[in-house]
Description:
- By secondary structure, the chain is of the alpha+beta class.
- The chain has two domains: about 5-185 and about 295-375, Aminopeptidase, CATH 3.40.630; about 185-295, Alpha-Beta Plaits, CATH 3.30.70.
- About 30% of the residues lie in helices and about 25% in strands.
- It contains nine helices and 18 strands.
- The strands form five sheets. Strands 1-2-6-3-7-16 form a six-stranded mixed sheet, with helices on both faces. A four-stranded antiparallel sheet has the order 4-5-18-17, covered by helices on one side.
- The longest helix is centred in the first third of the chain and has 18 residues, at about 115-130.
- It starts with a helix and ends with a helix.
Amino acid sequence: MKMSPEDLSSFLAELREWVSIETPTASPEKVDALGRLIISRAREAGLAAEVHGGNRDIHGAPLGDHMVLYDPERMSNEKGILLLGHIDTVHPSGTLAGGLPWRQDGDRLYGPGIADMKAGVLLAFRVLAGFSRKSPLPIRMLIVSDEEIGSPSSRRLIEEEAARAKYVLVTEPGRPGNGIVSGRKGVGRYFLSCHGRPAHSGRAHAEGRSAIRELAHQILALEAMTDESRGITVNVGLIEGGTGANVVAEHASAVVDLRVPDEATGTEMNGRILGLKAADPDVELTVEGAINRPGYVKDRGIAALVEKAERISRADGQEIFDLSTGGGSDGNFSAAMGVPTLDALGVVGHGAHTLQEHIEISSIPVRWNLLTELVMQG
């Protein structure tokens, strides 16, 4: 089951083809272009493909299709293995031609979405195509198009597929040093909107009620909710407001990211954020949002998967370690259902969501062996 030099060369050539198709979440036509390529390759390999289209985000904007791939000769009611990943990325179109071109620097290979998570999806796809008829358990693969915005349209499908699985293997990027993930924080996303009273900032300043001033109060209140000792972080990551320097701002808004260690803390923080009140009674404050990913806590089932991964790695002459992280993934959903879930099984990478995003080429054969053995040991 070792990856041959020819297999590695073929993998890198196909990965470049995937990375050359930029797939920002908000460009469903681009996401679907890569999806069509994957489906074509799946059918060439004798796999069936279910396409789930018509997806939309929480604001009604269209999203790309989701795909379920499987071997039609291995269809069964037996609980099997779910390989889980996404092909949408955070990088806007044009990144490949601009700040993050495909390039190799020693063992590092750069490109938009290469680590998060096209290399991992390709790895899982090749394992499915190569071992679906050899594995003791049936294998299904789910590829979604909206993970980077919290999986609003794919969550139901993820949970449906996870309910069919004995365990779930998520090929998000492996951590430097050959790390995998056995726990993740829960994630919340919130939208604040302030509506004040506009006025000329010179001759009628006193008549105005500044939405920006109100938002500033709310930003300070939100950031003060961060409690590192409890594993809670609240980050105001986007703000907008005003129409001109000489106008008391009528509108201002912000987008807030929340990370929590467990469900109970998520419930607490969700209530605190949704319960915010305007500091100025003449400004209307609206707060919307919710926990969109439950906490993912290492339990006995996950610990057993970690032990299996450790045994496989030692037999391959490798050391592996597991960790919990603040970043969320679609593995949060399956783990919260009680389905043993192991995450960050993809190619080792770093710099996700930045112009330094890359993978370590030398980790590809190592991760190939780990994933194939996890599948073949059932």
